[in-house]
Amino acid sequence: MDVLGVSCYFHDAAAVLLRDGQLVTVPYPARPAWSRLRLVEGLRYVRWRYGAPSYALNAAILDRFRALADERRFVPAIVFLPAKRERWDDRVRRRWLAAEAARRAVAYLDVSDAVHAAGGEALYIPDDAHWNERGHAVVAEALHPFLAHLLR
C-alpha cells in the first residue's frame, strides 16, 4: 500500500511517499540562492502568511483534494504540523484548517499539542525550521493511531 503525504504551508510545499510502510524519499527541490535571501524570504512570508488570497487558494486546493478523493476512491486526511515558533496567526490558521476539513468531511489531526508537550523548539534542528530525529519520532508517534484508524 502506498501513502502519499503532501505538505503545504501556504507558500511552500513538499511530499513524502510511504510504500508498504517504508519511507521512500521524495527530494525537496533546491531553491536558487537569491530566493533564500532574508529580504526575499521575508517579503514572500508576509505576502502568503497574512494575505487573504492564501485562504481562498487553500480552500480551492481542499475542494480539489476532496473531489479527487471521491473520484479516485482514496481516504483524504490532513495533518497540521506546527512551526518551530507558534505565533498568534498559527492558532487562527489551525482553527481555519480544522473547520475547512470538517466542512469537507476530511479526517484532520493537529500535532501541535504533541510537539509542544514533548519539547517544542527542542524538537527542531538548531537554526532551521525542520525537525531533528526526536521531532520526527514525536510526530510519528502522534500520527500512528490517526493513520491506523484511517487504514482499517
Main beta-sheet strand count, sense and barrel state: 3 strands, antiparallel
User: What low-confidence regions span 5 or more consecutive residues with pLDDT below 50?
Assistant: none
Shape: globular
Number of helices: 5
Give the spatial strand order of the biggest sheet: 1-2-3
Count the strands? 5
CATH architecture: 3-Layer(aba) Sandwich
CATH structural fold name: Rossmann fold
Radius of gyration: 16 Å
The structural domain count equals 1
**Helicity level:** 40-55%
Mean pLDDT reading = 82
Q: Report the portion of residues in β strands.
A: 15-25%
Structural class: alpha+beta
First and last CA, distance: 12 Å
Describe this structure in words.
The chain has one domain (2-150): Rossmann fold (3-Layer(aba) Sandwich), CATH 3.40.50. By secondary structure, it is of the alpha+beta class. It contains 5 helices and 5 strands, in the order E-E-E-H-H-E-H-E-H-H. It is globular, with a radius of gyration of 16 Å. A hairpin with a 2-residue loop joins strand 2 and strand 3. The chain starts with a strand and ends with a helix.
